[in-house]
Structures are given as structure tokens and as C-alpha cells.
């Protein structure tokens, strides 16, 4: 079956079998995994994590699922990495679904394209388990999700403040949540937040934001992009949010190259279409082929899977978006 984020949150205590979480909203992934882990702790379920670097790593996943430790009766296994099982792995997955009713296999993937969603892997899980798209397509969905975050912080926003917050963050839920935390710290006695509070707080809190980084990247201004990136690092901006910003711009440029007439449908603001078109003329399309792997390296570095430093690879991504190449010795 398919569940949305809010439906999935209500079912974490009954999660069994196979769940796939996929999408590009780090806030939703983080919150759902946190809720699942809290549930596992409460029910004394053993948790393991496996990171996939090659298709052969799926063998270790199924070995773990089939061999519980002496100290636990149930196992929750998190699998991270955008590598789907081969034919043999898919066969083992089907066997696990049929014969293992008590354990839970959570597969965490980035956003998937339409072809991937139609694959035998996804179809098998959707028919026998749970697929959760980590997306919030509509404004009312984003506001519902952020309302829960605001409630956790003990605040509420009037409708004008919600509208301003969404426009300011261009639908980025993680950035919006960070702003809610900032406004709570800035106005600790204020329970109802208005536009003035948000504007004052965000203007006072930072000289540059990830939106400034986006603008500098699309304009191809390498020096300014690096300057903003360094400022964001020093001000404590999460690496995951900076990666989200960079991956969004890379994805938009690759999509616009394939669909040059569909800028508005891709979510590019009308006032910025010409900037994206100029960026495409400036960039070499062959470089697009290297971008997905570069983003995976950043993600692995942030999660501590690789020994590379995230800031080094992020700077390489920034240079690529500005039409330059950095050669970094590892």
C-alpha cells in the first residue's frame, strides 16, 4: 500500500514487513525515522543499519534479517543507499515478505523517477508492504506538517505568517522548521507569530541564506557562492540543508535541459527563467552526467559513510554549478 507522511507517522507502532521511504524532503525523512526508532526502543526491538555501496550488499541485509541475536525476538533493519536489489535479491525479498512477519525492513531512498516507481522492486513492496513518498506537494499539506512542528515548539502562526514563511523558503520544509526554531528562540514569550516576528528574526539572524546561495549559483558567481557557503558553515547551517539547495539547482538545470519549454511546470519562478536559461548556455551538458554521483558522495560524507570531508565535495559541487571544476586530492 501507499501511505503519505502523516498517515505513516500514525502507523509506526504497527510497522512490520517492508517499508520504502523515498523522497527529497529531509525533514520528513528525519521525523519519520525518529518516530520509528522511538517506537523500536519502546518495544525493545533491536535496530541495525546497513549502508549499500554495491548490489552485493543486499546479501548482508537478508543474512541479518534471517539471523536474530540471542537477545532479541524482533529486528528493525534500516537500509540506506540508492541501490536496488538484483533478480536474486528481489527473490530473497519476496521470500522475506512471505515468511518473516515479525521483523521490519526499512529501505530509505532519495527521490525516484517514474520508471523506478514502476520497477518490479517497487511494485513488489507496494503490493505486499508500505511505500511512503516523502513529499508535500500541496500548500495545505506543507502547512499541516509545519503546524505540527510549530505545536511542538509551543507556537502558532496566523495565516499571513504561514504564507510569508512558505514563500520565503520556496517550499523547503527543513529550512522553514529551522526558521520556526529561530523565531521561538528570538521571541520566547510570543505564542502567536506574525509576519513582523518572522521578518525581524530572519533578517537579524543571518546575513546570507541558502536562497542567496541558490541565486549566486545560478548566476555562475563562483567567488560569491563560496563566500556564502563559508558563511553558512560558520553560522551553523546544516550540511544537509546546503546539500538540498545544491541538489535542487542541479536537478532543475538537468530537467530544464531535457524540457526547455517546461520551466514553469518544473517549479522555476517566472522572474528567474532567464537566469536558468543563461546558466544552461554557460554550462557543458556533458558535466550533468557526473552530478548525480557527486551528490551521492556529498550525502555519504555527511552521513559519515565515506572518509571524505563534506565541505570539500560541496565546494566541488558549487564549482560545477558555476561552470568550473575543482580537482581535490583525497
TrEMBL record:
GO terms for biological process, alphabetical: DNA-templated DNA replication
Enzyme class per UniProt: transferase
Residue ranges of domain DNA polymerase III delta N-terminal in the record: 20-132
A Pfam family of this chain: DNA_pol3_delta_C
Entry EC number(s): 2.7.7.7
One GO location term (cellular component): DNA polymerase III complex
Domain DNA polymerase III delta subunit-like C-terminal, residue spans: 210-306
InterPro entries from the UniProt entry: DNA_pol3_clamp-load_cplx_C, DNA_pol3_delta-like_C, DNA_pol3_delta_N, DNA_polIII_delta, P-loop_NTPase
Keywords, sorted A to Z: DNA replication, DNA-directed DNA polymerase, Nucleotidyltransferase, Transferase
Reaction(s) this enzyme catalyzes, per UniProt: DNA(n) + a 2'-deoxyribonucleoside 5'-triphosphate = DNA(n+1) + diphosphate
Top-level taxon in the UniProt lineage: Bacteria
GO molecular function, one term: DNA-directed DNA polymerase activity
Gene3D superfamilies found in the cross-reference section: 1.10.8.60, 1.20.272.10, P-loop containing nucleotide triphosphate hydrolases (3.40.50.300)
Family: Belongs to the DNA polymerase HolA subunit family.
Protein's name in the database: DNA polymerase III subunit delta
Gene: holA
Amino acid at each position: 500500500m501507499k501511505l503519505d507522511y502523516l498517515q505513516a507517522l500514525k502507523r509506526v507502532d504497527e510497522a512490520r514487513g517492508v517499508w520504502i521511504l523515498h523522497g527529497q524532503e529531509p525533514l520528513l525523512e528525519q521525523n519519520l525515522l525518529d518516530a520509528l526508532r522511538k517506537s523500536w526502543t519502546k518495544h525493545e526491538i533491536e535496530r541495525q543499519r546497513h549502508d549499500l555501496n554495491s548490489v552485493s550488499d543486499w546479501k548482508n541485509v537478508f543474512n541479518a534479517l534471517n539471523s536474530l541475536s540471542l537477545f532479541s525476538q524482533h529486528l528493525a533493519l534500516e537500509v540506506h543507499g540508492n541501490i536496488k536489489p538484483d533478480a536474486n535479491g528481489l527473490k530473497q525479498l519476496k521470500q522475506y515478505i512471505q515468511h518473516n512477519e515479525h521483523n521490519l525492513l526499512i529501505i530509505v531512498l532519495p527521490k525516484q523517477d517514474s520508471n523506478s516507481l514502476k520497477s518490479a522492486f517497487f511494485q513488489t513492496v507496494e503490493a505486499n508492504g508500505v511505500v511512503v513518498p516523502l513529499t508535500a506537494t500541496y500548500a495545505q499539506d506543507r502547512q499541516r506538517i509545519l503546524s505540527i512542528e510549530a505545536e511542538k515548539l509551543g507556537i502558532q502562526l496566523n495565516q499571513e505568517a504561514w504564507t510569508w514563511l512558505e514563500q520565503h523558503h520556496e517550499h523547503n520544509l527543513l529550512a522553514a522548521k529551522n526558521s520556526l526554531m529561530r523565531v521561538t528562540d528570538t521571541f520566547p514569550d510570543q505564542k502567536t507569530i506574525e509576519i513582523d516576528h518572522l521578518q525581524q528574526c530572519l533578517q537579524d539572524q543571518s546575513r546570507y541564506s541558502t536562497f542567496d546561495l541558490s541565486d549566486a549559483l545560478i548566476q555562475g558567481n563562483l567567488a560569491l557562492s563560496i563566500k556564502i557557503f563559508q558563511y553558512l558553515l560558520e553560522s551553523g547551517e546544516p550540511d544537509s540543508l546546503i546539500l538540498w539547495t545544491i541538489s535542487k539547482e542541479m536537478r532543475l538545470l538537468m530537467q530544464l535541459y531535457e524540457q526547455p519549454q517546461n520551466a514553469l511546470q518544473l517549479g522555476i519562478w517566472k522572474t528567474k527563467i532567464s537566469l536558468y536559461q543563461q546558466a544552461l548556455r554557460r554550462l557543458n551538458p556533458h558535466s550533468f552526467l557526473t552530478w548525480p554521483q557527486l551528490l551521492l558522495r556529498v550525502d555519504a560524507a555527511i552521513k559519515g559513510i565515506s572518509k571524505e570531508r563534506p565541505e570539500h565535495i560541496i565546494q566541488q559541487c558549487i564549482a560545477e554549478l558555476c561552470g568550473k571544476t575543482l580537482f581535490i586530492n583525497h
